[in-house]
Write a structure and sequence with these properties.
The structure holds two protein chains of two kinds. By secondary structure, chain A is α/β, with parallel strands linked by helices. Chain A is built from eleven helices and 13 strands. In chain A, the strands form four sheets. Chain A has a five-stranded mixed beta sheet with strand order 2-8-7-6-5, with helices on both faces. A four-stranded antiparallel beta sheet of chain A has the order 9-10-13-12, covered by helices on one side. Chain A has a two-stranded parallel ribbon with strand order 1-11. In chain A, α4 packs parallel to α8. Classes of the chains: A alpha/beta, B mainly alpha.
Chain lengths: ~325, ~300
């Protein structure tokens, strides 16, 4: 049974799950996304962050921090936006519609956005291409040679767990944009903060489309603090890598096969993904299945210890212990 | 010996397994046995009469284990020590845990599966494919159900604490010095032969137990295939396991880089087992365990 089309197409959707399986939002452990559940600690915000329109200085400070953190080439332009998804929705509108290749299965908002702007999504074309790197949900990595289309979008929303794999070097190529997000690795999805990095002309067009002050003052402050804290990033990468292995052990012990993923989410293969999702949902744990596969089940990593314990209890009940 | 005490020990083993907390502090009996065998190996495995030396070594181990068993049995402690020793010498829980780890490992990656199976088999795991790993785990499950659970129970029921201790020390000696290598061919002869004798009945009982607890009352296929196995005893539980799981076992493999063309046991079974079949082997281990527990409880009650 499909809960509703919106919930079936994305992670999240706790309200729909709660309506179906019971409980209220707060009872649920949401493992249906790839959002780090131990987020970057929210910094103290000044009254000015809320009161004032973000000035050029605050925006520039954030962009400088981002350039340093991601080793962005000087020739590439950068633009902070209210979440990577706001960029994804507008990118297809920057150039005349044509054909675009989006190798999948992958995050479906790219295809949706291109189609909504009159594009035709095809298997292969040199005109335009979108790669999600690492890919969601299977964790596939791409290389610079995969990224040579005239319009080239490289979505690195999950890329901060594998910084050495970043394709940021492609951001100097004409027609290329690399997308970054503060939502996943830093666990700040609620702040809505993402970046487009690359071709100055495309960046200027995006800036034009989103108007002045696209990012809120609190998000600017938060983003600047997060991107200026490489030590937190190193610690978090180490923890996520350890926790991904721990989740793999628990899940494979419960009878599903590891199929791919990143250190932010793991993809498992099982004969009956909907059945496992249902079993875990009985314990108010929400996971992600996919409309195009009845074998794939994706889980984000639990964060605090109590969440791991909940998952262990639910899996033990499934095994009938 | 007492069947009631044995039942208690079986359940304690099944629940507790081998808690690492304990064995970090005191040496496991298997480790002590290993040290004794090592010592005898160093002292006696030399000279022109190695085979006789091997016989003497096994005789010493048997006498020592028997005497220790008798002494422990005679301590007036209401059987507490005896139950504890028997629970420690049974290896059901740890066997299932090790076999399960192979299924879990295989679901993560072939590399993890190989690593897990290397803990329980002595074969080259580096070139194993998934079906090889699964097969090795299932074979090990069957063989160790006989060696690690059913045979110790059998000898305890017949001869009490001396019986189970003698069995375990001979079985350990076989695994340490019973190889057909230049160093051990002669010295290990006695241990290997005595181990074959001691397992003669238990291995066949294990096969019957596996078959009966899975409703396989037609023993034809097991009788047909057990003798195909390279080992006179291990073939029995393996053939029974192969038939009830419908997986072809044994078959071609490599030992220390050398290809061996062993015949298949239950060649009609599937040749591509995976983690699901390894899980099925674990369930079969528990089913067989429940079967033997029922027998022990019947003996107690009778």
């Amino acid at each position: 049974m499909r809960i509703d089309s919106r919930a079936a197409d994305h992670g999240g959707g706790i309200d729909a799950a709660a309506a179906r399986y019971g409980g209220v939002r707060g009872d649920w452990l949401d493992l249906s996304t790839g959002i780090n559940r131990v987020p970057y600690p929210v910094v103290r915000l000044t009254a000015a962050a809320w009161r004032d329109l973000p000035d050029a200085g605050a925006i520039q400070a954030l962009e400088v921090a981002a350039r340093l953190f991601w080793n962005i080439p000087d020739k590439a332009a950068i633009f902070a936006a209210p979440g990577a998804s706001s960029l994804i929705a507008r990118i297809p509108d920057m150039v005349p519609a044509g054909k675009v290749a989006i190798p999948g299965p992958t995050y479906n908002e790219h295809a949706r956005a291109f189609r909504a702007c009159g594009w035709q999504v095809v298997d292969d074309t040199p005109a335009a291409r979108v790669v999600v790197h690492p890919n969601n949900p299977d964790g596939r990595l791409w290389t610079l040679t995969d990224c040579q289309s005239d319009l080239m979008i490289i979505d690195e929303s999950f890329g901060d767990v594998v910084p050495d794999q970043s394709l940021i070097a492609a951001s100097v190529r004409p027609g290329t944009l690399v997308l970054k997000s503060l939502g996943k690795f830093w666990g700040l999805a609620g702040a809505r903060l993402g970046f487009a990095i690359g071709d100055p002309e495309l960046i200027a067009a995006l800036r034009q489309m989103l108007g002045p002050w696209p990012v809120s003052g609190p998000a600017l402050a938060l983003g600047q603090a997060a991107l200026s804290d490489p030590a937190w990033a190193v610690r978090t990468r180490r923890r996520l890598a350890r926790d991904a292995q721990r989740l793999d052990r628990m899940m494979t012990d419960a009878g599903v096969r590891l199929s791919g993923g990143t250190d932010l989410f793991r993809l498992y293969d099982t004969a009956n993904a909907a059945g496992v999702q249902d079993d875990l949902a009985q314990h108010q744990i929400w996971t992600r299945t996919f409309p195009y596969s009845d074998r794939w089940l994706r889980l984000g990593l639990p964060g605090p210890r109590a969440e791991w314990d909940r998952l262990a209890v639910a899996l033990a009940a499934r095994r009938g212990i | 010996m007492s069947a009631g005490l044995l039942a208690v020990a079986m359940i304690a083993d099944a629940v507790l397994g081998e808690p690492p907390v304990v064995w970090g502090r005191v040496p496991h009996p298997a480790v002590l046995m290993g040290r004794a065998i090592d010592l005898l190996d160093q002292r006696l495995n030399k000279g022109p009469t190695r085979r006789m030396m091997g016989v003497a070594a096994v005789a010493a181990l048997v006498a020592g284990a028997g005497a220790l068993g008798l002494a422990l049995h005679l301590i007036p402690d209401a059987g507490l020590i005896e139950a504890a020793v028997v629970a420690v010498l049974l290896a059901q829980k740890s066997l299932v845990d090790h076999v399960r780890a192979v299924a879990t490992g295989l679901r993560q990656s072939l590399k993890d599966g190989r690593q897990a199976v290397a803990m329980i088999v002595g074969r080259d795991t580096a070139t194993m494919k998934e079906p090889d790993v699964a097969r090795a785990a299932i074979e090990s499950a069957a063989e160790n159900l006989s060696d690690g659970v059913i045979a110790p129970i059998f000898w305890y029921l017949l001869f009490g604490l001396p019986g189970i201790l003698i069995y375990k020390v001979v079985n350990t000696a076989d695994s340490m010095i019973g190889h057909r290598t230049p160093k051990y061919e002669a010295f290990g002869w006695a241990a290997a032969r005595l181990d074959d004798v001691l397992n003669l009945v238990p291995a066949r009982l294990t096969a019957i137990l596996i078959a009966v607890t899975h409703g396989h009352l037609d023993t034809g296929p097991i009788l047909r295939d057990a003798p195909l196995h390279r080992s006179p005893n291990a073939g029995w539980p393996e053939a029974a396991m192969a038939v009830v799981l419908n997986v072809a076992l044994s078959g071609p493999r490599s030992y220390h880089g050398e290809k061996k063309d062993f015949p298949w046991v239950w060649k009609e079974g599937r040749r591509d087992p995976g983690p699901a079949e390894v899980d099925a082997a674990c369930r079969a281990l528990w089913r067989s365990w429940a079967g033997i527990l029922a027998v022990v409880l019947l003996l107690w009650w009778a």
